[in-house]
Design goal:
By secondary structure, the chain is an alpha+beta fold. It is about 40% helix and about 10% strand. The protein is globular.
C-alpha cells in the first residue's frame, strides 16, 4: 500500500466521522448549491470553499486524533476577519466552545455543520474544554446553511 493510499483511507475514515461530511460529499454539495440558485462562477467559488473547508477540517481532525491533548476553539470565520457574522441558533450556541481530542464527543461537535456554515475550528492554547453540562446539544442543521442560502 502506498503512502497516498494510506492518506486516502485516513481522509475517508475521517469523513465518515464528521457530522456534515459523512452526509454530504462533493457531488451532493454541488447539487444542493445548484438547487439553492447558485450558478456559474458563484457556484464554482462556493464549491471551492466547500472543498477547502473540508480539507482543512479533516486535517484538523487528523491532528487532534494524533495529538489528543491539542485543543481547538469554534469560531465564526467572519469574526476572525473582524466582521460580525449572522449565525443560526445552533451555530451561535457553539461559538467559543473548546474541543479537545481527549473529549469523548469532540467529533460530533466539529464544525462546519452545513454546506456554507461559517463556523471553523482553530487551534487554541485555552486551558480547558467546556464541561459536559455547558455543551450545546449536538447541532442538527439542514445540509445547506439556512442563512447563506435561504429557501
Amino acid at each position: 500500500m502506498s503512502h497516498s493510499d494510506t492518506f486516502t483511507e485516513t481522509a475517508a475514515s475521517l469523513r465518515d466521522l464528521h457530522p456534515l461530511y459523512r452526509r454530504v460529499g462533493g457531488e451532493a454539495a454541488w447539487l444542493l448549491m445548484e438547487e439553492a440558485g447558485l450558478k456559474g462562477q458563484d457556484l464554482e467559488r462556493a464549491m471551492d470553499e466547500f472543498i477547502e473547508t473540508r480539507e482543512a477540517s479533516l486535517e484538523h481532525m487528523r491532528i487532534l486524533r494524533a495529538e489528543p491533548s491539542r485543543r481547538v476553539e469554534i469560531r465564526s470565520v467572519s469574526a476572525t476577519s473582524g466582521e460580525a457574522a449572522p449565525l443560526c441558533t445552533a451555530c451561535r450556541s457553539c461559538v467559543g466552545m473548546i474541543l479537545s481530542g481527549e473529549d469523548r464527543d469532540w467529533m460530533e461537535l466539529f464544525p462546519p455543520y452545513a454546506v456554507g456554515c461559517l463556523l471553523r475550528a482553530e487551534y487554541t492554547e485555552k486551558a480547558a474544554s467546556l464541561s459536559a453540562d455547558m455543551r450545546p446539544a449536538r447541532p442538527l442543521c439542514p445540509p445547506l446553511c439556512p442563512l447563506r442560502w435561504p429557501e
